[in-house]
Amino acid sequence: MAESPTNEQAELLAQEKAVQAAIGDRPLDFLSLNAVSNIYRAAAAVRRRTERDLLSDYGITWGGFTILWVLWVWGEMEAAPLAAECNLAKGTLTGMLTTLEKQELVRRAQHPGDKRRVLVGLTDAGHDCIEELYPKFNRQETAFTDGLDDAEKVELARMLRRVITNAEAE
Amino acid sequence: MAESPTNEQAELLAQEKAVQAAIGDRPLDFLSLNAVSNIYRAAAAVRRRTERDLLSDYGITWGGFTILWVLWVWGEMEAAPLAAECNLAKGTLTGMLTTLEKQELVRRAQHPGDKRRVLVGLTDAGHDCIEELYPKFNRQETAFTDGLDDAEKVELARMLRRVITNAEAE
DNA sequence: GGGTGATCGTTCGGTACCGAACGTTCTGGT
DNA sequence: ACCAGAACGTTCGGTACCGAACGATCACCC
């Protein structure tokens, strides 16, 4: 859809000019601005599209999908590393696990020998769900990167990893 | 932090192997997977870090900041294009505008000649706020892209724009 | 072995965010 | 001049998500 680099470019320049006008003569890092702001926009677009086209049919959310996926790949695990892997605050995970538990996609079990810990794992239904869902999800991911060749995808992933490292530093 | 491409690589491979084990022999587009999943992770990391280090001092959220910024750059505008520019559902915008209005950073005015429309603009306090905040914000953006040279930032922005276009297609 | 401090998951309060439904206001055709 | 439908912002119900505070459990040490 729409190879219109000219329009894009023009729009971009108009925005830069407006920003520069608003900010006055102070210097501004437009390159970083454009890169970073597009990260957020891309993430939101990808999420919305995936939830709308794919996940809503299964009644699960983006975050819920992430949890199922991690459990599928790594198997039963405790709440804290699961939250870390899903990039969620542990308080957030608690609520989402409860939701997934109600849907019977996930179950909690107590850790043998440490009553503080909880072991989270997929139910059979959860296993079936993610197994059916993931191939479709991956095809979506492929579609989202349409127009980028393999080397570019690698580059994109690498640069984003760099941003993640920077943002999580300290 | 830490330049440890070896560890990163190893971790990545371990993950890929775990995924492949879970998925069995079905083919999988790892390149797209890595690219797309990093987008979301980077966006979350950037947002959290910015809210924690910068915005919380001013009592505003990421979304609130976006609204102030857009109004600052583009001036008074109606709700619908503002929502589009901020990448928000219009229902979401309503609530956030109410929050910002309570903080007296933003004001609503009725459109002359069309009572359905609303004109949203910055108050003086809002103007001061964003003007003080934005340079710091931009420095954060620069810090997030630390380690990428100018050409890479351009590339990153371009590839993300591509993803956005793909995800918003239709 | 009993108490102090760390570690775990949950709870709590608050905002963000979405999609759908809604009421109001405008517009175009006749 | 009217009325059917479009356009606008708000309301509503629901989930996600965070950070801080909390209670329960465990580990260490004298």
Descriptive account of the structure:
2 copies of one chain form a homodimer. A 3-stranded antiparallel beta sheet of chain A has the order 1-3-2. With 170 residues, the first copy, chain A, is mainly alpha-helical. In chain A, strand 2 (106-110) and strand 3 form a beta hairpin. Chain A has one domain (34-168): Arc Repressor Mutant, subunit A, CATH 1.10.10. The first copy, chain A, has helices spanning 5-23, 30-58, 62-74, 79-86, 90-102, 124-144, 150-168; strands at 77-78, 106-110, 118-122. Chain A is elongated. Chains A and B meet through helix 1, helix 2, helix 3, helix 6 and helix 7 of A and helix 1, helix 2, helix 3, helix 6 and helix 7 of B. The structure holds a DNA duplex (30 and 30 nucleotides).
- Oligomeric form: homodimer
Number of helices of chain A: 7
Largest beta-sheet details of chain A: 3 strands, antiparallel
Hey, roughly how much beta strand do the residues of chain A contain? 5-15%
CATH homologous superfamily of chain A, by name?
Answer: Winged helix-like DNA-binding domain superfamily/Winged helix DNA-binding domain
Radius of gyration of chain A: 20 Å
Number of domains of chain A: 1
SSE inventory with pairings:
Two copies of one chain form a homodimer.
Chain A: H1 5-23, H2 30-58, H3 62-74, E1 77-78, H4 79-86, H5 90-102, E2 106-110, E3 118-122, H6 124-144, H7 150-168
Chain A binds a DNA duplex (30 and 30 nucleotides) through helix 2, helix 3 and helix 5.
Note the main attributes of this structure.
mainly alpha; DNA-binding; elongated; 3-stranded antiparallel β-sheet; homodimer; Arc Repressor Mutant, subunit A; 170 residues
